[in-house]
Write a structure and sequence with these properties.
The chain is of the alpha/beta class. It is about 30% helix and about 25% strand. The radius of gyration is 18 Å and the shape is globular. The chain starts with a helix and ends with a helix. Bound molecules: acetyl coenzyme *A.
Length: about 200
């Protein structure tokens, strides 16, 4: 296997010329994104579509944004990431439809061996991260390698997600744990808030 194939399979690998080139590609595209202006809306969307492995029709990544490769980031329809998002995509980061990241969300697939000798020898590894549909990740959350988050989930701000989170829950904290299920009562409450807001809106 090549170093890239080892990386994608989750085995230990070393940086290679091929990986360095892909790293440089992402550096260039993120630099162009991060130095684009607020008037260049279409250009920003185009740059993200070129950078990521897959996007929906609509995607918005607020600069500044940083990632290692970009090509291993696969997002669904209407992905939104607020300022200062960092995605280390040594392994695939697969994100569903209607997912929102607050500011300073970090998704890490990258890890280094616990054993210092192997680590110092320059070997590293990745584990994929998967996020379902209709998920809101609060600001300053860190998602660790190997984590899967289900559908219809809210992750509280400042969380460190070290283990899988099931669907239809609010989870928060360090380490991130389920606080409670999202229920029919939540749906009724927020539907009513939506109705009141729309009735009051005069625009
Ligand atoms: C796309 C964007 O740009 S988003 C903009 C950025 N905004 C954010 O990041 C805000 C994120 N919001 C939160 O973190 C909110 O606390 C939510 C949505 C997770 C929960 O809100 P609520 O349902 O109102 O929960 P509530 O405040 O009642 O808290 C319930 C319990 O969870 C705890 N809790 C809530 N949020 C967190 C958190 N982030 N970390 C740890 N514990 C938390 C509360 O302390 C409380 O505990 P208690 O029952 O022991 O008192």
């Amino acid at each position: 296997m090549t170093e890239k194939e080892l990386m994608l399979s989750g085995m230990l690998y070393r940086q290679s010329e091929e990986l360095r080139k892909e790293f440089q590609r992402a550096r260039k595209l993120t630099r162009l994104l991060n130095t684009s202006t607020e008037e260049e809306r279409e250009r920003r969307i185009e740059l993200v579509k070129e950078l990521f492995g897959k996007t929906g029709d609509y995607v918005w990544v607020e600069p500044p944004f940083h990632c290692d490769y970009g090509s291993q980031i696969f997002v669904g329809e209407s992905f939104y990431a607020n300022f200062d998002c960092v995605i280390l995509d040594e392994c695939p980061v697969t994100i569903g439809d209607e997912v929102m990241f607050g500011p300073r969300v970090c998704v890490y697939t990258a890890g280094h061996p616990i054993d210092a000798e192997v680590r110092d020898a320059g070997l590293e590894y990745g584990k994929p991260v998967t996020i379902g549909n209709s998920v809101w990740i609060g600001g300053n959350t860190v998602i660790n390698p190997g984590v899967t988050i289900g559908d219809d989930v809210v992750i509280g701000s400042g969380s460190v997600v070290t283990k899988d989170i099931p669907s239809h829950v609010i989870a928060a904290g360090n380490p991130c744990r389920v606080i409670r299920a999202i229920t029919e009562q939540d749906r009724e409450y927020w539907k009513e808030q939506e109705r009141l807001s729309r009735e009051s809106c005069e625009e």
